[in-house]
Every structure is written in C-alpha cells, then in structure tokens.
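DOMAIN: structural biology
WANTED: fold as tokens
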Amino acid sequence: MPTYLTKRGATYYFRRVIPEDLRPAFGGKRELTFSLGTKDRAEASKRCRVAAVQSDKELDAARSMIASAPVAGAKPADAAPIDREAYAAAAFAALQLKRDAAFAAGDLPTFDAEAREKLELYQAMLDGGDNLGLSLAQVEGMQRATKALLTGDGAAVLASAAAVSRERKQVAAKPDTPMLPKLIDKWAAERNPEARSVDMWRRTCAMFYAVSGEKPVGAITKADVLAFRSHLMAKGNAPATVDSRLNHLRSLFRFAVEHDIIGLDPAASVKAPPAARRAKEARLPFDAATLKAVFGSAIYTKDERPNRGAGEAAYWLPLLALYTGARLNEIGQLRPKDVMQEVYLDAEDRECQAWVIRIVEDERDGLTLKNASSNRRIPIHQALIDLGFLRYVHAARDKGQARIFPDLKPDRYGVITGNWSKWFSLHLRQTCGVTDPRMTFHSFRHNFKHHARACGLDRAVNDAFTGHESGGEGERYGYLEYPLLPMVEGMARYRVPGFTLPTSPASLR
C-alpha cells in the first residue's frame, strides 16, 4: 500500500504524521488525516500521491512560518520579531494548499469543519489558554488566515502583507523623519490644541516609546502599534482608554502623512479591543448609603471648609449637581448673572415666574461647554432654595463677584474646577469612605438622570435638564428656548428617595 494510504472500513484515507516541531503550526495536531473519497484502491493510490505532494508543500510552508518563532527560554531581546501581516499571508497560502488537496479528494466539508475548530482553538489561545509555544503574532496571524479562507477574504490578507512591504520600502526611502516629540511640536504649532491635549499626547508617546523603543516616525510599523495595543490590554486598561491612546497616535501619524513625512499611517487599521467590559466600567450613580456618607461629612454637619475645598464650593457643588444634573465645570464656572427669574405661562395662560440657572458658553468670560446642546437653563429646585442658595447668590452679586464660587482656582490648563475635582476625589475616598472607582463626582449626574426617570419625567424634558442630545434638530443648538412650563413642572416632581437634606451653611441661617 502506498505511503500515507490507509483504509477505514471500505473507504481509503490519507494519513501522515506531522513532525513534532511543526505541530504548533497545526494547532497541536499530530497527523494530517482526511478521506480520499473513494473505495477503489487504484483511484485512492492516485489521489494519495497528489495529496502527498500537497502535504509536502504544506509542511514546508509551516516550517518557514515557525522558523522565526521565539526559542524557549530565550530572552525577549533575542527573539526575532514576527510580522503579523506577512505571517498571516504565509499561513493563508499554506491553508490554500491544504484546501486544494481536500477538494481534489472530495473531502472539502471535513476541511471546513476542521478549520472552524481551529478558529475556536486560536480564540481560546487569545483568551488566555495554552498557546502551544506560539507567540501572539503567530496565533493572530493563523486566526486571520483561517478566517479569511473560510470567508473568501484572502485578498485582504495578501493585500495587507503587500502594504507592509510597501511601507518598509517607504521607510527606507525616508530615513530622516523626526522623532515623535518633534512631530508633536509640529502638530501642536499648526493645530493649536489645548495645553492639556498636548500633554496627553506626549504621555501617550512616552508610553509608546517605552514599549517599542525610541525610533523615528518613519521607522514605526504597524507591528509596533499592535505591540503597544497588546501592552495596554495586558496592563488591564479599559477599552475606552486603549481607544484613546490609539487615537492619539493615529492623529499624529495622519498629520505626518498629510505633510509627506511618511507614506502610510501605521495605526490606520489598528482598532481598539471590543468594549465588552464597558458596562462594568461605566460610572454608577451614588446609592443611598453613599449619599448619606457624602452629605453626612463634617462639611455639612460641622460647617467645616477644607482648604482645598474652595470655601462654599465644597458645600454647594455636590448639592447643585444632585438637584440639577449639571456637569462639575458647568456649575463651577457660574456667574451671579446666570441665576435669574424667567417668566412663563402656565396651563391656564397665567403669567408665572421661576428662578432658573442659565448654563451658557461665553468665550469672553472663559465659560466653556462640552457641546452646543449643553447651552440650557434649569429651574432651581425648591430644596436648593430652602437651603439658601438664592441668598448665597444675591450676596455674591452684592459683593460684585465675577463668579459665584470665587475661591475656585483654575488648574494649569485653565479649567476652573480642575484642582477642586482632585480634592473631591480624595475627599470621597479618604473622608467619605467611597472606594468603588465607578463612583465619582460625575455620579451625581447619573443620580439626576435616574431619579428623573423614576419620577416619570418625559425623556425630552430629562434631556433638556442635562443638555443631552435626543436627535431633534433644535437640540443641536441647545435648550435655552425649551418651553419652561414642562421643565418647572418636572423639577417640582423631582425627588431623591430616602435622602435627607443637610442643614444650611452657618452664614445663611
């Protein structure tokens, strides 16, 4: 019987032992086995010889694929880097040979079934299972090649490998490209971003160089970016954080492409990992126990005013956030003139008045908002009035204060509540004992949205309070003209179940 020919029942099969050193390239399998699709010995012998030639090519391809695999026990610096795109292309070519052999033997369904099993195996490796001695680049390359073969998307794999080859040629043709810090300088000079953004970009690039090593922009490859992404993921960064870091790099590389510094953006097709964990990482509203801890602190029970708490801001900002749903900086930058009475008509067309807080953008006074829809006014809840908020604002107006909370000092980026936010985070953790990282000052905003829904407020009214876009054309320009009647009625219904108001500040009693 010819070599590799075996028989199961009446059907002939091809069976060949995979050399031990090549088994990692086949997902750990010990043999290449598939049906030759015939019961006739002469026909089986002919098909077996064809399959043997195909398997020789497949084993040769596998041998070249793992030739650059890290040696067990070798130091990372000694391991040869593996190009994912070229590796995926080689794996795809090897799989094509095997598929052709399966087709010739009439056993394509078996091949497809085995390929799908391997996809599951590769995913299990990437999820933390036994990697069978393979590197991350090899597992990802084989996963991509197998998926491409099953979906008929092999052209994309081969084109990507060709793009990497072109990129290398372009890198060689542009040896005098700048280092990342110099590129940031050019980008910042032209785009004029906020100082905070420039610092964030610099931190990202420093982190990137710590992983890839310092090299000119033209020498940075997609493999470097993928390694950086893997590093961030391995450190347990949230998907949103990984996405943000990659976007920093991508904006710089796009800038370099636009200015003909490099030919291709090495981060163009590198995506952040799926945000499957985002629901767990999302901000949480404060529960009843946490609200009790915050508003039971000495700030509210003993009229203490910590040095970094910016005087009365320590008392009022949490209460304003709980009863308006506004963002921290929106209420921190309020001016006395932003608190006023407005006239509206009730359901019987009678003229009424309501105290409101106007949250607006004003470039001359340095007032900034997140987006256009954030321009709005919010009726002041009776709880805040009872605590003396209007008296506090009137006193600030009488003193000629530019801001309601004059003790707030901007941080080095000019954010009026930047330093206060850091203080509140420490106060929340160390004084109030709130350790859940998903609870921050922004949780007050989530409290407002949650309790507004629980009170049966219409979604449009809820969005008008918080400045969230709800899809209408008008909302894109803010809620300053939203009808006041439903907002006044909605605020009258708003309550925080189980919450007991603290006492007024001593100065207002």
User: Anything to note?
Assistant: The beta strands are 5-8, 11-17, 31-35, 339-345, 351-359, 376-379.
